[in-house]
Amino acid sequence: MEEKLIQRLESAVKRLESLSTGFRGGASPADGADVDDASSDPSIVAYGDLVDQYVGRVSSAAEKIGGQVLDITNIVHEAFAVQKQLLIQVKQSQKPDLAGLAEFLKPLNGVIGKATALTEGRRSDFFNHLKAAADSLSALAWIAFTGKDCGMSMPIAHVEESWQMAEFYSNKVLVEYKNKDPNHVEWAKALKELYLPGLRDYVKGFYPLGPVWSPTGKSIAPSKAPAAPAPPPPPPASLFSSESPQASSSKPKEGMSAVFQELSGGNVTAGLRKVTADMKTKNRSDRTGVVGTIEKESRASPQAFSKTGPPKLELQMGRKWAVENQIGKKDLVIEDCDAKQSVYVYGCKDSVLQIQGKVNNITIDKCTKMGVVFTDVVAAFEIVNCNGVEVQCQGSAPTISVDNTSGCQLYLSKDSLEASISTAKSSEINVLVPGVGPDDDWVEHSLPQQYFHVFKDGHFETTPASHSGG
């Protein structure tokens, strides 16, 4: 009788434990029904159509290109898939606080971090593709909009503004491959249509005021980091010890306690050696008091290329001129070049490069106090992550772009006055053009780096700030 009662109690306890576990972290049958209902919601179905139509078009173009373009496109597809799951979670959850919102956005932030990681380090031939795709993913942050006071634009405006940042690099892809490879052009156009009109129209149709959270759903709590293990408790006094605390304090101390006792009392100088007259510095004959110049120079002038790598000026694979880590070189020259080759200048300082002949494109990356003189460029001349650069175009250049650069002087010839100049996150950009007459001085124009935005007639009107040198 007692054994049967014990078995019934044990089975009841197991059932209660399984039920409590299911409510805490598992999925009950009701939860599964909620997931099915959320997945069949019109907004979720429409989002799936958005992914199939627009992301599918970008992926199809990327598969024809392959390589890093396909890698970054797969991450874009993953990011949109993650947002679809977040939208389903929104319909099942209550509006979270800041900590809960950060926990909610963790999966999306992780995917965006993967895309950003591909753009870091040495620039590849597909850098513009990588930056366009990675920067565009910030548009997915519209789902974090919680109200007018949350510090971000309304969802529709946020999508449009995010694409404007990515479009800077998308346009570079269009310019570079306009007459070279239609697959790259298709990829850039498909990427833009994914956001404008794709994502923008979706947000406008279903979430113009941000995500709609469930008032009766479950709460999103931030995951608790595992607590650090507590330090081990001090060894307990022996239960069988007959000594009192006063008696234990009178015992001789050991370890560091003994050291502190020695320093705080007693004969501190006991055991120290006495300094004799011949041991004093002023009486030593082996010391001259003069610091060795060789040792000083070795400390003051470390190896110039210990961190940046060896200097390089070479043609790689017959397509790309690499000019890297040149410091203090005023006579760098590239003579034998053609219109199918590109020039990539990286990590140079206080140097001057002359490019004699027509090349496809030129990129100046992470250079300081660098001067470049070139004749003609077919696609574009790019300056990125630089400080104090002077560039002179003696022929023609259809596009000149300056990105994340402080201090840039552009000298344009008469043949290059119709060049399209784009700037982003840059300051102190001055363009000098020839005077009207052959003997006239150069005329300097400063490009605006400050803008005024005024909300008028339902939209913002942007005007550049005037400069005295303009």
Automatic annotation (TrEMBL):
Residues 238-250 have a biased composition (Low complexity). One of its GO terms (cellular component) is cytoplasm. PROSITE patterns: C_CAP_COFACTOR_C, CAP_1. Residues 218-255 are annotated as: Disordered. SUPFAM superfamilies: C-terminal domain of adenylylcyclase associated protein, N-terminal domain of adenylylcyclase associated protein, CAP. GO terms for molecular function: actin binding; adenylate cyclase binding. One of its GO terms (biological process) is cAMP-mediated signaling. Residues 228-237 have a biased composition (Pro residues). Belongs to the CAP family. This is Adenylyl cyclase-associated protein. The lineage of its organism: Eukaryota, Viridiplantae, Streptophyta, Embryophyta, Tracheophyta.
